[in-house]
Specification:
The chain is α/β, with parallel strands linked by helices and about 220 residues long. About 35% of the residues lie in helices and about 20% in strands. The chain folds into 2 domains: about 150 residues, no CATH class; about 70 residues, no CATH class. The N and C termini lie far apart (about 45 Å).
């Protein structure tokens, strides 16, 4: 396997952010070349660290420009961003280490990335995602997860609205924040079930189950699945 490393200088942008841009060949390179078949190129992006600090719009713009130069067959984004530590029952007590809630910026960041590289297959691979990073993960149509990976923490959008004591205002703020969150689900081809998935992942009081029709998953906002 041949690997070409790109943009190594970008590692200085953040100590927690590690970007690896790679053009990788598949197995049996020699055989593929001898047969005249095109060797597939996979471009890997490691999204590692805190949302808004290590993973942000300026950084993604640099990735877009480099990917245009490489013109790979597949782009794989590896997500490793968690606002909670590895002990499932313990929160990280330092709120400064939570990802930043720049939802408008993240929407534009993802739309720009997808539009500029629309001719290339894009896959997101979740290694660990807790907090606002899970919105980013849900924004891609093709998603895979490592064994033991986490994909949660979106209840923080619901929690933000609890700062209002007036019940009517609180309900409106809940709807507003959760509505913004569901926009990410719709970008990730979850449009048909954005409400069911979004409600359950953002509001801990909601229910979620599923039925299966072949490979298709039918999400339900109850426990009847």
């Amino acid at each position: 396997m041949e690997t070409i490393m790109r943009f190594s200088d970008l590692k200085t942008i953040g100590t927690l952010a590690t970007l690896t841009f790679a053009a990788t060949a598949g197995q049996a390179i020699a055989n593929d070349n001898d047969s005249g078949e095109k060797v597939p190129v996979v471009y890997t992006i490691e999204l590692d660290g805190q949302m808004g600090t290590d993973i942000h719009e300026d950084l993604m713009e640099k990735i877009v420009e480099d990917a245009k130069e490489v013109q790979p067959d597949v782009i794989v984004l590896k997500m490793n961003s968690a606002d909670y530590n590895k002990n499932y029952h313990l929160m990280n007590p330092d709120r400064k280490e939570f990802g930043k809630f720049k939802l408008d910026e993240y929407v534009e960041m993802i739309r720009n990335f997808k539009n500029e590289l629309s001719g290339i297959r894009q896959v997101i691979w979740v290694e660990d995602s807790v907090g606002v990073a899970s919105l980013i993960a849900m924004s891609w149509c093709e998603m895979y997860m490592s064994p033991g990976a986490r994909l949660w923490g979106l209840q923080k959008l619901h929690d933000v609205a609890q700062n209002w004591s007036d019940e009517d205002v609180r309900e409106k703020m809940e709807a507003a924040w959760e509505g913004m969150g569901k926009g990410f689900f719709e970008m990730g081809c979850k449009g048909e079930f954005a409400k069911e998935l979004g409600d359950a992942m953002m509001d801990p009081e909601n229910q979620l189950s599923a039925n299966f029709k072949g490979r298709k998953v039918i999400w339900l906002s109850n426990f009847d699945g």
